[in-house]
TrEMBL record:
The lineage of its organism: Bacteria, Candidatus Gottesmaniibacteriota. This is Glycosyltransferase RgtA/B/C/D-like domain-containing protein. It comes from the Bacteria. The keyword Transmembrane helix applies. The chain crosses the membrane at residues 21-44, 91-108, 115-136, 148-164, 197-213, 225-253, 273-291, 311-334, 346-367, 379-398, 405-427. Keywords: Membrane, Transmembrane, Transmembrane helix. It comes from Candidatus Gottesmanbacteria bacterium CG1_02_37_22.
Amino acid sequence: MKKKLLDTINISSVFRYNRNQLLVCLISVSYALLLLSGVISTIIHKPKDTVNMMVGHYYEDYYEYLSFIKQGQEGNIFLQNLFTSDDRSKLFIPWWSYSVIGLISLILPNNSTVYSYWFASFILLSLTFILTYKIVSVLMQNRAFPEKIITFLLIVFSSSFYLIKFTPKFEVLPFDYWFSQGSPFSRYNMGTPHHEFAQLIFLLSILLTIRIINVKNIWLKYGVFFVTLCVLFFCASSQLILFSLAFISAYIVSINTNRERVMSFNLFDSSRIIPYLFVFLAIAPIAYLINKYFQSSPTYLSVRNWDITHYYYPSIAQFVQSFGPLFLLGLAGAYRYFAKLSFPRLFLFFISFYTVFISLIPVNIAGTNILSLIGIHNLRINTSVAYIFFGIGTVELFKMISKKCIVFYALAGILFLFYTLSFHIYWKQAVDLPRQSGYLQYMPKIMYDGIKTLEKDKSGKVVLASPKSSLGLAIPAISGHRVYFGRSIFTLDFDEKLRKANKIYNFEIDTKEVNKLLIEENIGYVVVTFVDNDLASWNKRYPFLKPVYTNSNLTILAPSI
């Protein structure tokens, strides 16, 4: 009888566990769809005779990422910058995830670069939310499921403070700044799969580290730890900095703190971190060799230089306003968070601490920002993981001030209502974003088909498109062809190339100079659209350029041999 009762209890527990996990998965998938709803809505509003390019992110970045997926679909693991004619170096970090998306998309029924991009984003977002809940569950393992799920929801829906104006019209103005994470759309990198992938890898690394920290088999423990660091380096190098600082700090504090939460430094106990330090040092040669290889890539150096010239240190007030109420409430509940001191809780705390510290305070050595040596700006360190610490702290505070469940749920409900207004504003911005991209969003089908014809030519010839048309962005993504100039920070010597292109399209350069430029830059095609001079004028000005494709929207010219 007792055995039957135990079996019934076990079955009931398993059923309840599975039901809870299913709910988490449903919430994660639904929320991912909500964040992507602005892009999804473009399908409904697509005009007739156009191709929906689904621009749900800043359009220059977006077309850059599509060009990487296109290269993956052509079987390339290592990627090239197709937005310049004078750099053929091959890159792996940090965009290699796009080549993988491209390769995987080949097995899908519709292997469009656009659909592959957004399907990958949806999967990565859903998994990110599931892993976020998993970390919450590990850190609140003795708490009931309702508390865990409310913590999870407070974290993923967290939004910034906002100002409400009633005159001259009613407006809700969320506090925000460049690269802030106050908006859930920004925090979860909606529309940038390589950042979403890095975020996912970071969450996995945290979970894995928490799992292996107490494993007794040292070969297994340090082996897995080494692999984790390598994966972080290749997939989430910015987060590796946070991971390293937080791990070392949390480990030293945890082994020197007793059950009464009193810390007393012990040299013998502290020496237990030495094997981990050797593991950290073991990846240094790999990092050095990879970095040395990238130093030979003009594209990589251009991106690196862009980053280290774009530091932005918000004031504490700006940071708190953008972070939102979760920051203040989480700090107020931090005492309860540390009531159960453990390595996992310390690890998450230090990740959050260093996130805030590096975001706000420049660390200079001999007048040089230390992050410039790594090649990133300070806000690259920002991570959504910090919200987990503040979310748990908030729930701890609510539990402390509410003796009854109804009060706890009421406090959580009030916070959700507060989020609603700013979330609505951010959602409207996401819905409006595609409309700001002109025909790079809804491209005329005949224009798209014309660009697509370039796909047949595998000679590696460079394509020249006019500055007015902005097709220098779209051609690599649609056809996989290299262009003379396109993405501004990816086109080497952009201003000079822009000047020369304008001269050609404005007929301000003679035939000999044009011919010389085409030969020097290996330009095999010149694309003329409805925004440029008419075809008759081109034939008269540059008679050696002959049409190889033409429709009412676009003409592709090629030098006659």
